[in-house]
Amino acid sequence: MPPAMPSQPSPASAGNVSALSSPGDDLNRKIVRLLQADGRATYGEIGQKLGVSGGTVRNRVARMRETGMLRIVAVVDPVAVDYEADAMLGVKAAPGVTPAALAERLGPCSAVVYIMWVSGRFDLLVEVVCYEETEFELFLNDHIHGRSDIAHVEVMTRIGMFKNQFLLKRHVP
């Protein structure tokens, strides 16, 4: 009789995510691609396109959502809505202020649609989208200008839009 092998922790007990929940799994990647193309597609429709049951798709989507790997959300196209004001702000944090602390303060603002920590002359790139110019002015006055946690800001307003994918990749690896 061969010697007993030491028991290996299961991926779940080791804190890892099941391969069935992984976006790296081929079927999950295909499901995500189809949901990106049409977020309202039924599990049955997706399953039919992929040659699996709707229940398999439902289970895969549920696992990916439970692990936080997948969120299904509605995204508004800012060009279609025709916002009056949108801008990218290059923000340099004041000495002694971390980019994370500044991002934490700006994050809850409804006009802020994303914040990215970057390298280079700015610490953060902050995209702001407003329905009206007055809302944009209020945002700048209330949250940007004269604030002690900001050393410098460069406001770059949109002149035209050449491409906008809403930060959603069309092709999942």
How would you portray this structure in words?
This protein has 173 residues and is an alpha+beta fold. The protein folds into 2 domains: 1-74, Arc Repressor Mutant, subunit A (Orthogonal Bundle); 78-157, Alpha-Beta Plaits (2-Layer Sandwich). Helices cover 33% and strands 17% of the residues. The chain is built from 6 helices and 4 strands; from the N terminus they run H-H-H-H-E-H-E-E-H-E. The protein has helices at 26-37, 43-50, 54-66, 78-81, 99-106, 133-144, and strands at 85-93, 112-117, 124-130, 150-157. The chain has a 4-stranded antiparallel β-sheet with strand order 2-3-1-4.
Briefly characterize the structure:
Helix content is 33%, strand content 17%.
Radius of gyration: 22 Å
CATH superfamily of the largest domain: Lrp/AsnC effector binding domain/regulation of amino acid metabolism (RAM) domain
Task: Report the CATH topology name of the largest domain.
Answer: Alpha-Beta Plaits
Biggest sheet: strands side by side, in what order? 2-3-1-4
Overall tally of domains: 2
- Would you list the SSEs in sequence order as H and E? HHHHEHEEHE
Structural class: alpha+beta
> What would you call the shape?
elongated
- How many E-type strands? 4
Which features does this protein show?
Arc Repressor Mutant, subunit A, alpha+beta, 4-stranded antiparallel β-sheet, 6 helices, 17% strand, disordered N terminus, Alpha-Beta Plaits, disordered C terminus, 2 domains, 173 residues
